[in-house]
Write a structure and sequence with these properties.
This protein is mainly beta and 115 residues long. It is 0% helix and 54% strand. It is globular, with a radius of gyration of 13 Å.
Amino acid sequence: QVQLVESGGGLVQAGGSLRLSCVFSGGIFSSYSMGWFRQTLGKEREFVAAINWDGGRTDYADAVKGRFTIARDNAWNTVYLQMNSLKPEDTAVYYCYAVSRAIYWGQGTQVTVSS
């Protein structure tokens, strides 16, 4: 069974940076496209970024383009989300996902950006 464990969330001031990590286990990592969603209380989960199996293709939500970078290391079964120039509106629980024939989700990590 695929398992995803996120880390790296925390409290940061506006303009600061954080790097989220998501460690994959229980399957063949390179068979999965990976990505991140985020969710704030009372709102639907929204797409943030995605990366294909070899890192050759990435996609970003308009709200984070130019500030966030998604990357993966297939040797370490890990996907990263580098978040720069953070804004208070980036505050959310960030969820990692893995998708192939099915989609799997991590438990989420809280990111709080203070103004």
